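A brief tutorial aside. Many learners find it easier to grasp structure tokens once they have seen a single protein encoded end to end. The record that follows does exactly this for Class I SAM-dependent methyltransferase. Read the sequence first, then the structure, and try to relate runs of similar tokens to stretches of the chain.
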Amino acid sequence: MPFSSKAIVWLSAAGLFAGSFACTQPLSESSAAQLTEERRQTLPDTSGYERRPPQDLNGIGKYYLGRQIAHVMGHEGASWLERSGRQQEEGTDILLRELRLKPTDVVADIGAGTGFFTFRISPLVPQGKVLAVDIQPEMLTALRETKDRLRASNVVPLQGTTSNPNLPAKGVDVVLLVDAYHEFDYPREMMRAIRNSLTPTGRVALVEYRAEDSKVPIKRIHKMSVAQARREMAAIGLRLTDSIASLPQQHLLIFRRQ
């Protein structure tokens, strides 16, 4: 997503403010360190990003560690998430079984959409929670309606942003990303925030269509290879601890803190 002119103006103003402050009052060593840390936390981390014309028109003109980022599927495509053949095509029951959830787990479903996985996970964690995160208000409205209809009291819809899922720090046991990560506008910032949300034994379950398999009937930009996934997760301090090959078309990759 291109930086807006407002963002550029804000950065310029921040720089001018810092400069004028330095001219009128010398910063102590501790104050300078604090200001540097505050700016580091506020400004987006652009490491690994580049902008160039899209190789695939289904993607945006932004690349992360060599991978073109795909367009986000809008709420208009919600029916595809609930299609009748999804369970068989993707082996969703197998996926849920492979997650080996405990009844007390706090699970974050990132890019929850209509809640296809959210409401299947809910009864598996009766003493836990399912944090259903999405950035689209229309998806969250659908989630809340289904939550009320099913009386799923342990489901918590959360409004995320393109760079932060707004998860509790060190409070999530399992983060589930199903066919969502490759569409993140800011994958580095999102995954860094997700990493910070993990409990000491927490894990990330990354599910993406296999780029290594040409027989998987999905456009290349909506696939990921194991090598690319490992590279991107390693960049923010996550290591691959398990690669589960039981799904019909997708990788199920488990990552933990390094």
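Self-check: Confidence is low (pLDDT under 50) at residues 1-33, 35-42. If you spotted this yourself, you are ready for the next section.
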